Prior knowledge:
The chain is an alpha/beta fold. The protein folds into 3 domains: 4-155 and 280-348, FAD/NAD(P)-binding domain (3-Layer(bba) Sandwich), CATH 3.50.50; 168-277, FAD/NAD(P)-binding domain; 352-464, FAD/NAD-linked reductase, C-terminal dimerisation domain (Enolase-like, domain 1, 2-Layer Sandwich), CATH 3.30.390. The protein has helices spanning 16-25, 47-52, 54-73, 88-112, 171-174, 191-202, 222-234, 327-341, 370-375, 391-396, 424-436, 441-445, 456-464; strands at residues 4-10, 30-34, 116-119, 121-126, 129-133, 139-149, 153-155, 168-169, 183-187, 206-210, 238-240, 244-251, 254-261, 264-270, 272-275, 279-281, 314-316, 355-357, 362-367, 380-386, 402-408, 414-421. α1 packs parallel to α8 (327-341) and α3 packs antiparallel against α4. The longest helix has 25 residues, at 88-112. It is globular and about 65 Å long. The structure holds flavin-adenine dinucleotide and nicotinamide-adenine-dinucleotide. Nicotinamide-adenine-dinucleotide is lined by residues 158, 187-193, 195, 210-213, 244-245, 276-279, 324-326, 356-358.
Amino acid sequence: MADKFDVIVIGAGPGGYVSAIRAAQMGLNAAVVEKWISDDGKPVFGGTCLNVGCIPSKALLEASHKFVEAKHDFDDMGIEASDVQMDVKKMMARKDKIVKNLTGGVAGLLKANGVTAIQGTGKVTGAKQVEVTDKGGKATTYDAGNIVIAAGSVPVEIPPTPLVDGMVVDSTGALEFQETPKRLGVIGAGIIGLELGSVWNRLGAEVTVLEAMEDFLPMVDGAIAKETQKLLKKQGLDIRLSARVTGSEVKGKEVVVKYTDSKGDQEITFDKLIVCVGRKPYTQGVIAEGVGVELDQRGFIHVDDQCRTSVPGIYAIGDCVRGQMLAHKASEEGVMVADIIAGHKAEMNYDAIPSVIYTFPEVAWVGINEQEAKAAGIEVKTGTFPFAASGRAMANNATEGMAKIIANAETDRVLGMHIVGQHAGEMIAQGVIALEFGSSAEDLALTCYAHPTMSEAVHEAALAVDGHAIHMANRKKK
Ligand code: FAD
Ligand code: NAD
């Protein structure tokens, strides 16, 4: 194996493997180093996203949603399916198979693109040097024209709830339950808490979510967050806000959790507890002392808008740098950095990165929300359309939720799109494109949408910005 590469990427998650492939496509001699190792000693590609994140969680969300639909919604459509059962082990086996297919697929893609895959733990030992320690402890030093650090993130642990094998778990453990717990506690009503809480709630667990903050989903548009909270409550998720966890103790087969809320000290007992209170950058040991790569106060690798670190030739992308911890953000940064290394001009529009929470219904947004516009002193006009007024939503049995568009009051330019509704995660691509192309709300309003589709709600929301939605009384006063 060559010991010199144009670019060496550390970490083969959606940031790293995409960056390595792009670099190879741009004609560079690229290598990717991955320390995650399979039982048969091969590197495991795909990082958090493919192995213990996006993909396995979505496999469980889809299966559990279909179960609930079959159990509760089919009857209304005339489908007799009263005795529907869930085989949790089979659901897990399907999830594992999907993960295996995808991670194997990445290995194939790396090979097909001529990327050299190196198993081992990578460490930046100089501006142009990476040392890799393999599974047997042997260290090899490689020369690199450029280095991309894509080391990702790991779950945050908090002192009141130390992990206890199989009982008090992080998101990875929560993807491995082999049966549905009767009483499930979730610490943190963030994205992971709501997604994984939904999975087990749908399968019959009594789920209580303890959230320290007073506001529910503070990063989401206020109206959308309120609607989401109402819908999740209706599904049986017991979300307790302003509930700060102070301790936990495993007693036999139970976990006793202590927390404080506005009424004082509380205690609650669960069969399992998921701790999902955020993730932190995984930078420990990745950069040798003296290399000069700066970290910020929270431990993220400090980078500029084009993911350059403080050392020329060393870049960092994905969860280990500032910004949203999202797979598609990591991948886009990986592509940008590979293009820059290959000598091309490249930049990213950080204002147009979509977010999706894969509950049912899904919550999706891009751009600014109404409270952010207000805080920034931007005058906006908004248009909202409820799925209750959508023909397709009625046919789909999915009338819950709404689409909302935020436009600049003066220029009509779309500044944000926010949706809670079935397939919101698919529909939000329209908002991303609107932001990328600088569309006005009128542009969307004058666009012909296929009928009947859920996306017509976006069209109607765009029309509603100026009080002209057709299927809703919304005339704005002049
Ligand atoms: P990672 O995916 O964490 O990959 C980093 C890789 O680097 C790992 O393989 C690690 O082993 C390797 N590594 C680290 N240090 C070294 C080293 N020194 N040497 C060699 N290798 C090293 N995001 C979404 O966009 N959509 C979702 O639906 C979604 N769902 C999620 C669900 C869950 C339960 C979780 C936990 C996360 C989810 N995320 C989702 C977040 C998403 O997984 C991350 O944002 C994404 O994986 C970040 O990509 P990355 O390449 O930066 O890092
Ligand atoms: P998060 O930041 O989304 O939510 C963590 C929540 O825990 C916050 O609401 C916080 O207030 C709360 N919290 C913190 N300490 C607490 C305490 N002591 N007691 C009670 N509540 C407490 O983090 P997460 O849900 O762990 O997810 C991590 C990241 O992974 C997300 O920010 C996201 O970027 C990524 N992710 C994305 C998706 C997706 O795109 N669909 C899915 C899962 C994860």
